[in-house]
Amino acid sequence: GDSVTQMEGPVTLSEEAFLTINCTYTATGYPSLFWYVQYPGEGLQLLLKATKADDKGSNKGFEATYRKETTSFHLEKGSVQVSDSAVYFCALRSSNYQLIWGAGTKLIIKP
Amino acid sequence: GAVVSQHPSWVICKSGTSVKIECRSLDFQATTMFWYRQFPKQSLMLMATSNEGSKATYEQGVEKDKFLINHASLTLSTLTVTSAHPEDSSFYICSARAPEFDEQYFGPGTRLTVT
Description:
Chain A has strands at about 5, 10-15, 20, 25, 30-40, 45-50, 55-60, 60-65, 75, 85-95, 100, 105-110. Chain A is mostly beta strands. In chain A, a hairpin with a 5-residue loop joins strand 10 (about 85-95) and strand 11. By secondary structure, chain B is mainly beta. The interface of A and B includes residues 34, 36, 93, 96 and 99 of A.
């Protein structure tokens, strides 16, 4: 069945560092791909998405490109801030609109 | 944007009692709602999918008689945890979608603690 694998955390970085959180998937067909963020004490928020191969989703300085050839959707940000500390989830949407989730990666940014 | 609320945000109950959690779409009609369970430091586990006016579809391993889901209207779905036990303690999250939306919108979650 469909699945999502993302790098384990926690990931600890200093402010202004470059961020990459890896995400790979297995799926039949060409699913839509998502990154969600969960800030401490808050609900899940959609961060960005891509619906087809080579699409780049971007929001709040974060980017991820849908790579069909490597079945990947890695999350990147050029310069992280303390306020980016959160748990990040990679997910794919199956044909029946169900979301298949990665395990989540906790990001800790130190000033 | 589309807003989904959950009530209560946290609840503590005694073992053996039942607890109802509400999920509401505030500014759109949700034809489909999803219920998830999130264990500490783990990902979300889909429990069931409910479509308005029909019975919920439960994921494998989820007891439908224990986790009663009702999607009585286009803006409200409820999850009732019956005869709760400490192992039911968890963070329960709902999401909702409508045909005009390409994505699900998530509620803030409900923290259930069974003592």
